[in-house]
Amino acid sequence: MNYQEVLAAARGEMGPYCKVCPVCNGLACKNQIPGPGAKGIGTGFIRNYQKWQEICVNMDTICENKPVDTKFELFGKTYDYPFFAAPIGAMQLHYGDKYDDNGYNHILVKACADNGIAAFTGDGTDHNVFAGACEAIKASDGVGVPTIKPWNMELVKEKIDMAKAAGVKMIAMDIDAAGLPFLKNMTPPAGSKTVEELKEIISYAGVPFILKGIMTVNGAKKALEAGAAAIVVSNHGGRVLDQCPATAEVLPEIVEAVGGKMTILVDGGIRSGMDVFKALALGADGVLIGRPFVNVIYGAAEEGVAALVEKLGAELKDTMAMCGVHSLKEITKDCVRR
């Protein structure tokens, strides 16, 4: 199946919120929570997508005619492309009954590893979800990134132990999940973490630690101070705070502040290989892509993931070739017009 066929198949499998639109831009699912739409008036998701479209690429074909290299290294592991599947959870609540979180993660982790990339996995109030994700990553020789919610310190450490027992090479925390309703008013308290608390968590982890949900220069500097090896510039798809800027808008200033000092990833509305190129040109080292992976798994499971990775990879390679660059390191801000 090709990508369009996979999307067509998914339209009969999704729940009531996601419409499997030809372009996943947040318009049809606006302000639907639970569901994939953004919080409040629903502009966060839409703005994320639109701001990537406002960036143009600079074509230049007066160059050597040779193949492009999309290989990307992250913490000692080389991947075929600089994009990853983003962590998504509560599948049946948001996307339909076909897959629970464990079923989704087992397909996602293996299919991503088989196709030369890696999957970030989600977390939830059912702690079997995180355990199942770790099992899936272990079965794929540690290729995958378990993502922990900002629970209380004891539970965070318990989940770190679980992840390390599975042989993971890195661990993430979506710190912006502090804004999700189920984390509020928990006993013991869960949610936002201080720099000192993050230092303790990162030291305890003992493997490269990624903080997801950074949207300001100050936040990036605090993540660096806490010892994070990487950050993900992310507003949680607009699902935790309405009327945030788009990730494409804040990425350049964050890169200017901490670029070269830590790995910088970005997500939010990235839908094509050309969008990946734009993100790299703005200074990101790599990107995460979320909802499109949900669509293709609901449409065709492992075959759907293969079709999406092939599509994104082909678009990235074509954009690189037409802009006169042949490796990821050659992609600079001069490759785009804002």
From TrEMBL:
<feature type="binding site">
    <location>
        <position position="234"/>
    </location>
    <ligand>
        <name>FMN</name>
    </ligand>
</feature>
<dbReference type="GO" id="GO:0010181">
    <property type="term" value="F:FMN binding"/>
</dbReference>
<protein>
    <recommendedName>
        <fullName>L-lactate oxidase</fullName>
    </recommendedName>
</protein>
<feature type="binding site">
    <location>
        <position position="212"/>
    </location>
    <ligand>
        <name>FMN</name>
    </ligand>
</feature>
<comment type="similarity">
    <text>Belongs to the FMN-dependent alpha-hydroxy acid dehydrogenase family.</text>
</comment>
<feature type="binding site">
    <location>
        <begin position="290"/>
        <end position="291"/>
    </location>
    <ligand>
        <name>FMN</name>
    </ligand>
</feature>
<dbReference type="GO" id="GO:0016853">
    <property type="term" value="F:isomerase activity"/>
</dbReference>
<keyword id="KW-0413">Isomerase</keyword>
<dbReference type="GO" id="GO:0016491">
    <property type="term" value="F:oxidoreductase activity"/>
</dbReference>
<feature type="binding site">
    <location>
        <position position="239"/>
    </location>
    <ligand>
        <name>glyoxylate</name>
    </ligand>
</feature>
<dbReference type="InterPro" id="IPR000262">
    <property type="entry name" value="FMN-dep_DH"/>
</dbReference>
<feature type="domain" description="FMN hydroxy acid dehydrogenase">
    <location>
        <begin position="63"/>
        <end position="338"/>
    </location>
</feature>
<feature type="binding site">
    <location>
        <position position="236"/>
    </location>
    <ligand>
        <name>FMN</name>
    </ligand>
</feature>
<keyword id="KW-0560">Oxidoreductase</keyword>
<keyword id="KW-0288">FMN</keyword>
<feature type="binding site">
    <location>
        <begin position="267"/>
        <end position="271"/>
    </location>
    <ligand>
        <name>FMN</name>
    </ligand>
</feature>
<dbReference type="InterPro" id="IPR013785">
    <property type="entry name" value="Aldolase_TIM"/>
</dbReference>
<dbReference type="InterPro" id="IPR037396">
    <property type="entry name" value="FMN_HAD"/>
</dbReference>
<feature type="active site" description="Proton acceptor">
    <location>
        <position position="236"/>
    </location>
</feature>
<dbReference type="Pfam" id="PF01070">
    <property type="entry name" value="FMN_dh"/>
</dbReference>
<dbReference type="InterPro" id="IPR012133">
    <property type="entry name" value="Alpha-hydoxy_acid_DH_FMN"/>
</dbReference>
<keyword id="KW-0285">Flavoprotein</keyword>
